[in-house]
Amino acid sequence: MTGSAAEIRIEPGTTAEALGDSLDRAFESGASVVLLDATGELPERFDAPAGWLHGVTAFELPLVFAFEGPVAGGLTEVALACDIRICGAPGALKGRLRGNARARTLAGDGPALTLFLGQALDADALLAAGLVSNVTAVGEALAEARRTVEVIASRGPIATRLGKEAIWRGLAQPLEQALRFETDLTLLLQTTKDRAEGVRAFLEKRPPIFTGE
Asked: What is the C-alpha separation between 190 and 132, in angstroms, rounded?
């Protein structure tokens, strides 16, 4: 067994509750990475109850968000709560950020202020601000996102989860404390069967078979 990817399509009828349920099912299925497909027709409104977004931000598995056209309102917050965003030109994000501290950390004052004011950032501006990882040609965002999740799924699932935890918890810590936290997680990872399998696979010059143990 190696990690698997789950794919969730955001459609006109998708609500915050339905998306949350889909994420829960993806986690329970044993997936090691989740792709949110927002490349098609999207909900006209996406309203999330107070505190709901924290569940997306704190989701243990890596989240990849793919979009093509303009993403606005509550879905902008969902996109910015994900770990990797892939945009097909001429995609755009339009405010709001509200209490999304992660997005404010990533965007800096200029882009964050633009979104707080409800204005839009186009694909080039998003890439320059570091708010998307890649800008593709029209119609290619989903394929690129699938390639990305395939690579993540091929890695050890424990390592990817701990890597995400190290990044996002480390951002809020002083540098010395963040480095100590990363070291602690590395030591924890070295006690796993997957780490031993990775070493064996390297020495035997074969692809590793991770079990999530």
From this structure: 32
